[in-house]
Amino acid sequence: MTLFDHLETVRRGTKLTVREKRTPSPYQQAILDDVRHGQRAITVGATAGSGKTSLLEMIAEVLDDAGTGETATSAPVAGPIGFLAFNQHIVKELKKRLSATFDIRTVSSLGHKICTEHLPGLKFEPRKYEDLTREIVQGAGVPSPAARRELQDRLTACLDLHVGHALGLDITLPDWAAAMDAVDAPILGAEEILHILTLRTLRQGLALLQEQQVMSFTDQVLAPTTFGWRLGTPYAFLLVDELQDLSAAQLGLLQLATDEHTRLVGVGDQDQSLYVFNGADVDSMANFTRIFGAVERPLSITYRCPERHVQLARPFTQAIEAAPGAKPGTLDDLTGDEFLSLARPGDLALCRTNAPLIDWCYRLINAGIPAIVRGRDLARSLTALARDAATFDGKRVHRDQAKDSLPLTDFPHKLNAYADHLSAKIQREAEAQGRDPDMRIASLADRLTALLNTFDEAQAGTLGDLITAIRTLFNGDPERSVVLSTVHRAKGLEADRVFILEPSLLPHPKARTPQAVDAERCLQFVAFTRSKRDLFFVDAEETRIPDGLRGRE
């Protein structure tokens, strides 16, 4: 035995590097064997913290070894190898660790590659849709400059969310409103016009792409699936991370980048598929399996979660196992005062809804503890709600009056009156459509409470004061703050210490439809698997901790 027995050399293209030895788990080894033996397509069901990215890197090494002839059991891959990562940060990290053999990019970047092949003379104009929204709003008959700016801000937010969640060009107003409301889009009170203008803007943008070869980021996912453009040379092997979050359009991009000879490995966690309103997202792993004829393999050992947290999460998933030698971890209830005494920068606090995050953010700040709320979309939504409520006359909103200098005289009364107006509208629409309005009304009430909390704490005298206070809550350094987040926005996050606020809202009491109930199951799983050491429930009305699991490490 030597000092270097824990190290190994690995090839990075033509270079050799040294790192700590990796020993695949039995689940990882079975998947690596599938790859070595030529399995065409594999769907890996990976639990939280199970080493998804590590597995994909191990597969990449197998493919690299096959290409250099260093393994007798893997045939070289004849053609380009793609690796689709979740975001640009991960792309940059993977490019440092993997050889130049791999075409590493995001799904959006794959769309860009396809577009440039089909329209070689493309002119990239990142402001294309910004200019389009300005022109379309100017032609919408909105009387004042202030109201036009307000509508353009909302339309821009709707475009980003619409394309990001692949809502298509033919979605009906009821489906669109429900989908956008679920992701905190600023549509309240302007659903009809924003639905019309969003679809009009996208159709005009696609026409500009075809007729004048002007492309922006938005077109990268939208255009190939809309026009059926294929990748000129399909990938011979394609690795896909975060499979559970592929939208219908993104899954379509995979089909356009492959053919019947392509081998694929898709890795994801169905229990972390949170955006069920889309329809495609909730079934993305099953759809991948069906489309590509993939075999399904588990990756059930979590290297993040302690033993107690695994036991807590087990009722919400088909498979999760603690790693060999995992520590028991801390699992306990706390009072709100105990939370304030314990919380420190680097901690993560989660809640099912938004309003408690605002309340606790102010409480932490007032206690001298840096804290921020995560979610730019929520900031935009609260800003839009503030502007509308401040200019509501009891019958309609006067957005041309929404100036920063506007005094907030009797603002709580106006906000409640506007919320009653919106609630009645939601109920009328739901009755006409045969839908359950409870979740949308609950979402409205949540934002109303969040805005009232901000108004009260900031003691805002003008609309500008209130908007500044909203934006301040969402700005700051997350590494030097307690980060407060809804569970929806927490997927992919982890921390040594996690606090769950208002645990009685998990699951949400208004979730009644089968789709909503399944979404709440996923949310509970995500909430219970973010911590690497300590997990606390704050001010629980009834404990969520089963008998025998409570304990501190």
Can I get a quick summary?
This protein has helices at residues 26-36, 52-68, 88-97, 107-118, 128-138, 145-164, 173-182, 191-212, 217-227, 248-256, 284-292, 307-313, 336-342, 355-366, 376-390, 411-433, 438-458, 463-473, 514-528; strands at residues 7-12, 15-20, 41-46, 81-85, 102-106, 123-124, 214-215, 237-240, 263-268, 295-299, 301-302, 321-322, 330-334, 348-351, 371-373, 482-486, 495-501, 531-538.
Write the layout of secondary structure elements.
Layout: E1 7-12, E2 15-20, H1 26-36, E3 41-46, H2 52-68, E4 81-85, H3 88-97, E5 102-106, H4 107-118, E6 123-124, H5 128-138, H6 145-164, H7 173-182, H8 191-212, E7 214-215, H9 217-227, E8 237-240, H10 248-256, E9 263-268, H11 284-292, E10 295-299, E11 301-302, H12 307-313, E12 321-322, E13 330-334, H13 336-342, E14 348-351, H14 355-366, E15 371-373, H15 376-390, H16 411-433, H17 438-458, H18 463-473, E16 482-486, E17 495-501, H19 514-528, E18 531-538
Parallel strand pairs: 3-9, 3-10, 4-5, 4-8, 6-7, 8-9, 11-12, 13-18, 14-16, 14-17, 15-16, 17-18
Antiparallel strand pairs: 1-2
Helix pairs in contact: 1-2, 4-9, 4-10, 5-6, 5-8, 6-8, 9-10, 14-17, 15-16, 15-17, 15-18, 16-17, 17-18
